[in-house]
Design brief:
about 140 residues, alpha+beta, 3 helices
Length: about 140
């Protein structure tokens, strides 16, 4: 939705509304029931409106690029949150402790916690997966 914030935009909306008012006179068409109005709207009004105001696109090529089969959708379609490694080599996320099992990590370093669509929690450091496991119990 684009909100009308300028007089020009408001004018376009008002002109559009007048167009609907002028063209959508159901009583003049003799329509009395909802199914009759629906049929009129689909068969006559919409095609006429589209003929009047349709804008043909200049380019006929696709607007979207193809994605390679190598794409990792979990890296894109997930919640990401940055956490600092604690002194016990854990990170806290949503009240849970996650033990990091990589020897190269140090306290204070930043890691990214990712929650995938299947609700699995995964930890990454510089876009590389980090071996980690949830510790049962709540972080406190």
């Amino acid at each position: 939705m684009i909100k009308a914030r300028s007089p020009q935009t408001k004018g376009r909306a008002e002109r559009s509304f007048r167009t609907f008012q002028n063209q959508l006179e159901l009583e003049l068409e003799g329509l009395k029931t909802l199914p009759e109005a629906d049929a009129y709207f689909r068969k006559l009004f919409v095609p006429a409106y589209n003929r009047s105001f349709a804008v043909h696109r200049e380019k006929t090529d696709r607007a979207f690029a193809r994605v390679s089969g190598q794409m990792d959708y979990n890296a894109v379609l997930c919640l990401k949150d940055v956490r600092a490694v604690q002194n016990d080599y854990c990170v806290s996320y949503e009240g849970e402790k996650i033990q990091l099992e990589e020897p190269y990590l140090r306290a204070g370093q930043k890691v990214e916690v990712r929650v995938w669509l299947d609700k699995g929690i995964h930890v990454y450091r510089k876009n590389r997966p980090v071996r980690a496991r949830r510790i049962h119990g709540r972080a406190g």
